[in-house]
Design goal:
α15 runs antiparallel to α16. The two termini are 18 Å apart. 52% of the residues are buried. The protein has 18 helices and 20 strands. Helices cover 37% and strands 14% of the residues. It has an 8-stranded antiparallel sheet. It has a 7-stranded antiparallel sheet with strand order 3-2-1-12-11-10-9, sandwiched between helices. It has a 3-stranded antiparallel sheet with strand order 4-8-5. Among the domains are: 98 residues; 140 residues, Butyryl-CoA Dehydrogenase, subunit A, domain 3 (Up-down Bundle), CATH 1.20.140. Pfam families: Beta-lactamase. One of its GO terms (molecular function) is hydrolase activity. This is Serine hydrolase. Keywords: Hydrolase, Membrane, Transmembrane, Transmembrane helix.
Length: 702
């Protein structure tokens, strides 16, 4: 849930910063910040605020994972009894047995938890309709040293919740009560505004192609008394439509919440009741709920959610009004029952043809990369077919994979954000290692670099912005601060920064690259003019694209200009009293009088007022630093004050133009004339930045 995945993105997101109270927040305190640091931390906070991120949609650094099984003793459950034989076959593929999986997990998990400072985790493997193994590692409660019990300990699977929502939708499709290609407004008691001359359909919701901007307001609460209902959320938080429906994948929690509300409207049951009655009860999922606050009967079973093991303090239960998108609490064994149902052609939840429709209807926008199915997304590895979903809250990080042709499912959930921000890649590595250990089809042979690598790399290199992005209100600042640079090294490999590390990609087919560290693919789709239409890469390719950044939003243009503009304004303010002190020291009279003097002083007062406006925005980000749950209507007053203060910026620009006229009409020095030109240019750059970043918007939705 906490994806954006970026990526991540996009708004996974839990990205590049950690505050003392919250795993993903703006760290602006502690002295004067450079513009670069301010941008970095604002970026991290806005990414973090986009809770409910899908798998690997956040900017992350490399996790610490073992290459080979080890025996280091960490505070975890007792290891499974020693396997009598875990020797791989001649081709290196191991037999998928409980003994072998347990032995492998005993090598992988304790080390990974210890090195990444994770308090606890659960891993479930199902095969041929049964639970092959269920393992708890570490603690559900660090203070009491309560171990993780895969049967009863409840985790927060984040956006994996969406699979339950999509299953509910398909149940109603099966009954003829929902048409996937019907305008969603046909099922609502309010209206999604028209745009692009085409309606949003239920299919668009399921494939994340509705075209909504990233919506971050009202995504998380801590106070149960302030928690919005699902109905209030979907009616009050309608995001802007920024892409034509069906055209551009852009992951949307709001879209899933809207689908959940449609389930509620069509079925006549509340969403929570519907899931209880039509999914949990038929599957015997007795330790699962979407309800918030957490029902009292589950309080003793819920795992704590932690920043990391060193911090050691369980955080508050996250309340998510977009419940269908990510509010599930569930035990490992219950998640196994859900996996088994889908591996069993949907039984008893769906007819076989409906389940296959969910798993096999592919909405491909960037072949041959993994794409969206109906709610699930492809997680194919090599020639191994797999669908699934990942999920993140700010604290829990989970992944679910169904190896459809093998009758095998894998679920993992960690109850901590850990250190270094590598939890998303850690769970990806777990799934990758599992697939390669047990299925030969998942092994990717070495692919040589193409001779066209340098040529094609040069065509793709540039600055990109995620399709999963806020475009309204102050959160639109992410479109500037969240851009990704792709460069080419001397060998022709693409290089993409990701957190504190870099991902490298080797071209193995024309305009298709393979990641040299983890085997993921990247692809570029070129237009008829030979320019990039979009790029994307696995695992975010099903639900997100990276689009070339237009020049007017380019951070490579805006940020240097902004630095120079702010520098000019600060220097002007510094020189104002400095010159006055010099005149006082040498008893020199002020050389200006009348309108010239008034214009001179007006522009400097204008600069002060502009910095007042910027300070109001600073206070807003400072609020988010300590409490990301402030992204609600309670922030509206502060936002409105900062928005109204934009009049200072326009007034300062007007004063600087007046000052320009006064300077050039008099007998002033060449430096005075030059500086009189610099000041209005500086204000225009600031207006440009604020306009593109949404700081001049009067929109209270974001």
């Amino acid at each position: 849930m906490c994806s954006a995945i970026l990526s991540a993105s996009a708004f996974s997101p839990c990205s590049e910063a950690r505050a003392h109270d919250h795993p993903c927040s703006i760290q602006l305190s502690g002295g004067t910040m450079s513009l670069t640091a301010l941008a970095r931390n604002a970026k991290a906070a806005l990414l973090a605020a986009a809770l409910l991120l899908p798998a690997s949609a956040q900017a992350q650094v490399d996790p610490v994972v073992p290459d080979d099984p080890i025996t280091e003793d960490i505070a975890v459950e007792e290891a499974a009894p020693a396997a009598p034989d875990v020797t791989p076959a001649e081709d290196g593929v191991h037999a998928l047995t409980k003994a072998d999986v347990d032995a492998w997990l005993d090598g992988f998990m304790p080390y990974a938890l210890n090195e990444n400072q994770v308090v606890g985790a659960v891993v479930m493997v199902v095969k041929d309709g049964e639970i092959l193994t269920g393992r708890g590692f570490g603690y559900a409660d660090l203070e009491t040293r309560k171990p993780v019990d895969p049967a009863t300990t409840m985790f927060r699977p984040g956006s994996i919740s969406k699979l339950f929502t999509w299953t509910a939708v398909m149940q109603l499709v099966e009954k003829g009560e929902i048409d996937l290609d019907e305008d969603v407004n046909a099922y609502l008691d309010f209206k999604i505004p028209d745009a692009f001359g085409a309606p949003i359909t239920v299919r668009h919701l399921m494939t994340h192609t509705a075209g909504f901007e990233e919506a971050i307001k009202n995504l998380i609460f801590e106070d149960p008394e302030k928690l919005m209902s699902l109905e209030d959320y979907v009616k009050s938080s309608i995001p802007a439509r920024i892409f034509p429906p069906g055209q551009t994948p852009a992951y949307s929690n709001y879209a899933t919440a809207l689908a959940g509300y449609i389930v509620q409207r069509v079925s006549g049951e509340s969403f929570d009741d519907y899931i209880d009655n039509h999914i949990f009860t038929p599957l015997g999922m007795e330790h699962s709920t979407f309800r918030m606050p957490l029902p009292e009967k589950y309080e003793g079973l819920m795992s704590g959610g932690y920043n990391d093991a060193a911090d050691g303090e369980a955080q508050k239960f996250e309340l998510i009004p977009a419940g269908p998108a990510g509010s599930l609490s569930s035990s490992g064994e219950d998640m196994s029952r859900f996996m088994i149902a889908h591996l069993n052609d949907g039984g008893p939840l769906l007819k076989p043809e409906t389940a296959r429709r969910m798993h096999e209807t592919i909405d491909q926008h960037t072949p041959p990369l993994n794409a969206m199915a109906l709610g699930f997304y492809q997680q194919n590895r090599g020639d191994l077919r797999s669908v699934g979903h990942g999920g993140d809250t700010t604290l829990f990080h989970s992944d679910l994979s169904l190896f459809l042709d093998k009758g095998v499912g894998l679920f993992v959930s960690f109850n901590s954000s850990g250190t270094g921000g590598g939890m998303v890649l850690l769970r990806e590595k777990l799934a990758e290692n599992f697939a390669e250990r047990y299925f030969e089809e998942a092994r990717i042979p070495f692919e040589p670099r193409l001779d066209t690598a340098k040529e094609h790399g040069a065509m793709v290199a540039g600055l990109y912005e995620s399709s999963r992005t806020p475009a309204s209100g102050f959160a639109a600042l992410m479109r500037i601060l969240g851009q990704t640079t792709i460069s080419v090294d001397e060998e022709g490999d693409l290089v993409m920064p990701l957190g504190a590390t870099q991902l490298r990609w080797r071209e193995v087919e024309p305009f298709i690259w393979r990641n040299t560290q983890m085997g993921m693919r990247m692809a570029a789709v070129m237009d008829d003019d030979g320019k990039v239409d979009h790029i994307t890469f696995e695992p975010v390719s099903p639900f997100m694209q990276y689009l070339p950044t237009p020049w007017h939003r380019s951070s490579s243009i805006l940020m240097p200009l902004l630095s120079v503009a702010l520098g000019a304004l600060v220097l002007t303010l510094i020189l104002w009293p400095a010159n006055a002190i010099v005149r006082w020291r040498y008893k020199t009279p002020f050389a200006l009088s009348g309108k010239e003097a008034l214009a001179y002083r007006a522009v400097r007062v204008g600069i002060i007022l502009v910095f007042v406006q910027l300070f109001l925005w600073f206070l807003i980000f400072q609020t988010l630093n300590s409490d990301l749950t402030a992204l609600t209507a309670e922030l509206d007053g502060q936002l409105r004050m900062a928005q109204l203060a934009q009049v200072f910026l326009y007034a300062a620009l007007g004063a600087s133009v007046w000052n320009l006229a006064m300077v050039w009409s008099g007998a002033r020095s060449w430096f005075a004339k030059l500086w009189s030109v610099v000041l209005p240019l500086a204000f225009m750059v600031l207006i440009w930045f604020c306009a593109v970043g949404g700081l001049l918007s009067f929109d209270l939705n974001y």
